[in-house]
């Protein structure tokens, strides 16, 4: 579950990171392009350059929270894969205190999700309240284009929901690690049989 959760966080941040949302002035090519993509809804000349400039500035403005989200998701995925590999090779059976270390890390990660989600949404709110975003929204709405509002989009909300899911999943993993530690200790304390068949 931790691997899938980390992957989903990376995907949600990557969707916004990869979307430059830059206006393409196809109508200025003339001919059929002017007919199909032009008209009253197209930006031309200086307006098109201004919109492209605002799009570039907005893209640079919104990058930091998504880059940090992808980095944190990648680090969590590496941790989850490492714990899975350690479990596959039965290292916790040979060295049970490793399960306690895993439980401690899972508690810290679960608690770390709380301020991470708060900072994520605070930073996004600052970005969407920025004058660049407002001016960009006004230019697009003046031509009747929708989808450029200064609001949270679906990937932002989904990333936050997956973060909330992380607050639940990692403490559950803590409980499972502690239960596994108790079971391994019980198995190691059993007397060995004289006749190993």
Account of the 3D structure:
- The chain is mainly α.
- It has seven helices and no strands.
- It has helices at 2-18, 31-37, 46-88, 91-94, 97-128, 131-142, 154-189.
- It is elongated.
- The two termini are 37 Å apart.
- The mean pLDDT is 87.
Labels describing this entry:
197 residues, mainly alpha, 7 helices, elongated, MARVEL_domain_protein_3
Write a brief caption for the model.
77% of the residues lie in helices and 0% in strands. By secondary structure, the protein is mostly helical.
Query: Cα-atom Rg, whole angstroms?
Result: 25 Å
Number of helices, where a helix is a run of at least 4 consecutive DSSP H or I residues: 7
The low-confidence parts are none
What is the total tally of β strands?
A: 0
* Sheet with the most strands, sense and barrel status: none
- Average pLDDT works out at 87
Helix content: over 70%
- SSE topology string: HHHHHHH
N-C termini distance = 37 Å
Q: Which descriptor suits the 3D outline?
A: elongated
Oligomer: single chain
Proportion of strand residues: under 5%
Helix/strand-derived class?
mainly alpha
Membrane topology: Multi-pass membrane protein
GO cellular component, one term: membrane
Keywords: Membrane, Signal, Transmembrane, Transmembrane helix
Main location: membrane
């Amino acid at each position: 579950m931790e691997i899938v959760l980390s992957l989903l966080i990376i995907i949600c941040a990557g969707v916004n990171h990869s979307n430059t949302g830059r206006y393409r002035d196809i109508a200025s090519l003339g001919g059929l392009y002017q007919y199909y993509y032009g008209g009253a809804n197209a930006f031309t000349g200086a307006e098109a350059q201004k919109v492209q400039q605002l799009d570039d500035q907005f893209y640079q403005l919104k990058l930091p929270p998504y880059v940090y989200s992808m980095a944190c998701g990648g680090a969590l995925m590496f941790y989850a894969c490492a714990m899975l590999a350690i479990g596959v090779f039965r290292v916790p059976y040979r060295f049970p205190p490793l399960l306690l270390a895993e439980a401690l890390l899972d508690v810290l990660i679960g608690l770390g999700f709380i301020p991470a989600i708060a900072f994520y949404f605070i930073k996004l709110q600052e970005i969407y309240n920025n004058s660049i975003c407002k001016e960009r929204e006004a230019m697009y709405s003046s031509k009747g284009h929708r989808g450029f509002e200064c609001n949270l989009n679906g990937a932002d909300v989904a990333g936050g929901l997956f973060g909330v899911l992380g607050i639940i999943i990692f403490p559950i993993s803590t409980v499972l690690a502690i239960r596994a530690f108790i079971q391994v200790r019980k198995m190691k304390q059993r007397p060995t049989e004289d006749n190993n068949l």
